[in-house]
## 1
Amino acid sequence: MESPEWLQPALGYLELNMYDEVGRELDELTPAQRESLEVLKIRVSVALDQKNHSTALEWCRELCDRYPEEHVGFIQGAYCLHEIGLTEQAQAWLQSGPATLQSEPVYYYNLGCYDLALGHVESACAWLAQAIEMEPSYYDDALSDPDIQPILQRVETMRKTTTSIESDGDLA
């Protein structure tokens, strides 16, 4: 979906990592524009880029309240909670999203990361296996993800098993 013309200046500044200018552009929009899905996503993105997880979380809350069918507020909000050390709340937040989130591999990948952080190795492996099965590129993500390092060997085994099953399916 193409962004509206009134949002282009803010997006240009965002591409240049000129966050103060992004904020000024967004603040100059009409009240209706400032409450739009696009603007809330930009505000979350800016806060995350600046590693301001508390502010990003507040924007995610607003995003979820105004647009409960949108995945980004739940995914990013959970990430923010995890980053500020509230991993159990991160899981609950993510799982409180719309049922359509369950069609997203990132949903399972993040649940795997959160379960692993909480010491739930078996369920973490199951979540990660689901993510990798849905989107094989998550295997590559897992290889370089410091959160996954404690179970990297198991992830590698999962990938080999998934690849073997896929290959067997091609022969049938």
## 2
Amino acid sequence: MSSLSDRLAAARRGDEPGDSPAADDAATGAESGAPGAPGASASAASPASPAGAEGAGQPTVAGKRRATSEAALSARRAAAAPAGDRIDDLKANVHAELMRELGPRLYDADLDTAELDQQVRAVLAEVLAAQDRPLSSSDRARVTQEISDDILGYGPIEPFLRDPDVSEVMVNGHASIWLERDGRLVPADAQFVDEAHLRRTIDKIVSRIGRRIDESSPMVDARLPDGSRVNAVVPPLAVDGSALTIRKFATDPLTVADLISFGSLTPQTAEFLDACVRGRLNVIVSGSTGAGKTTTLNVLSSFIPSDERIVTIEDAAELQLKQDHVVRLESRPANIEGRGEVTIRDLVRNSLRMRPDRIIVGEVRDASALDMLQAMNTGHDGSICTLHSNGPRDTLSRMETMVLMAGMDLPIRAIREQVASAVDLIVHQTRLKDGTRRITHITEVERMEGDVITLQDVFLFDGSLGFDRDGRSLGRLRPTGLRPKSLEKLALVNVTVDPMLFMADRIA
């Protein structure tokens, strides 16, 4: 058996590259004097040897090397940690510091948005400069933008709200964000940090228009400053985390020319609708959720002459009328004590005392239908509203149902006579399978025949042309060949329509 000195010498030689790691282990055992380690008894028997003294008081060269290697490995592991984790930690620290620096100035209603943005970015630059963590220029720009979006905007969804190609943003819990692009749903490469981060963003949106969302009131309809429609649902109603849906409105509202270029309308149908609005016909825009009813309502309202007084009534103000004389009213939910609610129906009744030439209701969904019919039948011609339905006939059925919701014990025939007298035109819009939004029916409401309201399609969507290679519908609106009875009513107010628009053998 070799002596302790020989083994220690071997251990020193093992410090050179290529030597056996077993020698290192032997040397370590010798230096530690652990029971059972090779040479432990020999070390005790020869305490005076120089090598034994070295092993008793100091780590061997191999031990030093191993400690150094482990420290280097830990440093490499820390450096190799996911960049996203390090950036997130830095963002959290900078965000907290920024909140301490700015404090209540972030919520000062009198502070101009541009001035607040300038202050936030100035403080953000100072805070980042004071951080002891080195950042590349790209990481610095990323952190600056993301924290600015969090403080001044709506966190990870802010870039999508700025993207003109995104028409809808859907958040299904903090880790799942979906977008609608070109009528198609696609997942977004972004997410909120956690549920609390998402809830803060929702609270920021709804609090700006004086609304609230919590466990006692877990659903809310709201809007962004640009008019984009917002709906939020939080636990316990939302089982998998808070749900946020934002239907964007274009900064520059779509015009009738845009709808024609998209294929939603045709020049001939646009000319006819222009005449109907100027001629003060009462119009209902119907369709399913997301069919584009509000956009069409905006376009129809653009046909209203600028010298008329318009009163708009909405749950969340999102209409973008360009006329000068517009009064915008918005309903209000009850407060935390269950008081102070102002409904669409209350606003419709009040609008009759405001001397309106036109009443535009963003959406009729309840007993306000009765008051809307009353307004249309009491001299407020030219009113426009939207309503959810599957088709023109269903539009009338839903109108009857909502009138009954008012609690009036009215016979069905009386309600139908009111509807037939009040409503002149139904414009029905559909979101097709390919994601495009098309007006599929322009239908005239004629009169009562027995107990049934008669309808007449003036323009009808023809889908027999099929689809192109990309699956896009080639269908078009075509005239049915029937001349609308409302042309006589239009003539009485000096609005004329070219009868050639209704020829059945031409594409509308």
## 3
Amino acid sequence: MSKLDKISQFLPIRFRNGDRIQQFAKKCPHCDKTVSATHMFGIAANINERVLLAAQAECPHCQFRFPVTCVITAQKRVLRVALPLWLYRMYIQMLSRSGQKTPPPENASHQATAEVAPSSAISMEQVTTAVETLGSYLDKPIFAWIRRNGLIYDFERVCANPATEQLADDECLLEAGLVYKRRAAD
């Protein structure tokens, strides 16, 4: 996936429930006219039945450029992601390379699914947070780091589906859908 692909090249995207997204557009924040996917360049990927989209849009009416970062659910809800475009694009590329793009086969047995234990999320009350934020995800702040049980964890990535997120031994998941990685000892 090149970061300069037209978003319209990724469409239509089909979900397992049979619904599909055939077109996508956003309003230009400068002139309030509609900007279609043919005027957006970036990446889009269907990961865990959610379309993650990170693109730079250029309004054909006023030539104003603006970032488009969002998640589109299988129910066609568009959720804004308040991460910088470069960071969100990198996150989508990382997920696509790690193989999370491919959903599990629909004929997989229940036993095989049960072997993958979902990660348990921790609540905000169990951590101390940094004052510095890096942005927000689903209207929740992304703290630069957190402290848990005397250890410091730095922000690593957002998690589109916390119920199925697989964590490394040095990672923790906040209820807000944010993954933090334990800082290496100096």
